[in-house]
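Q&A FORM
Asked by: J.P.
Topic: structure of inorganic diphosphatase

PROVIDED:
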Amino acid sequence: MSDVKTYVAGHKSPDTDSICSAISFANLLTQMGTPATPVCAGEANKETTYILNHFGFEHPQIVKNWEEFAPEGGNLYLTDHNESKQIIDGYKSMNMCGVVDHHRIGDFETDGPVFMRLEPVGCSNTIITKLYMENNQEIPKAIAGLMLSAIISDTVLFRSPTCTETDKEMAHKLAEIAGVDIESYGLDMLKAGADISDLTNDDIVRTDMKEFSEAGKTISIGQISVMDTTDVLAKQGELVQALEALRSANNYDASYIMITNILDESTTLLFSGDVEAVVTKAFEKEVKDNGVFLPNTMSRKKQIVPPILGAMK
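REPLIED BY: S.T.
REPLY: Here is the structure written out as tokens.
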């Protein structure tokens, strides 16, 4: 057996699918004869912490830089991302082995051929569930709970426009294995993640933040989901200031935060940077105080990123 260690990692500013997909895919690799260790790029958010505790998992080890964490190198699989700016720093020192993802293909490059499984579904764990089934691998009860939780999170309990029939099908199969009632558990899980009472303004604007590049410019887009946006939007001006501090510190051309109302299925998009014209062009909505209200909008991947990047061209 090779002494080279194999790791599975999700993206920076990890969300539920990022962490749970690293755990579930590492388990699949291990069951199939390649011992693998899940890691993550940062602390789990409240929703993910609730899920890990509920199903009895320890928080994966946090890795900020691969060259420092694994100076001897190792094999690396990515889940829930493929764009270079979202990968843990120092990844070029690792032997890239594969990607399982449900996002657009960015600027990802490898030195050699790798395993790639990308599908236009609502969650990476939907794809991983299919991989278990295709390889005739048993899905442990707790792993099924993690994967179900990720699907509920990414599709916002099937409310997101990114949700597909495949997501629903896999979720119901996983719920049966995990012994979970999807609706009641899903609402409890989402409520746990929606509690932002102890978050600072900086915490809020950095929630689930991802970087994107277009036309030589780099932007950040975060997202926080709540049951009621009244309190958080009461301090819109402070959040815009926090966004500007974030933008300036990282030399972004713009920084955005999606404040998504789970129950109303709407989003207020706040921004910093000289991009009012971009926002107006992207959404054709009135911009007020560095913000725009977007009804029937919950998905960054499908409803926010494409129009913004398109307006930047």
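FOLLOW-UP: The longest strand covers residues 217-226.
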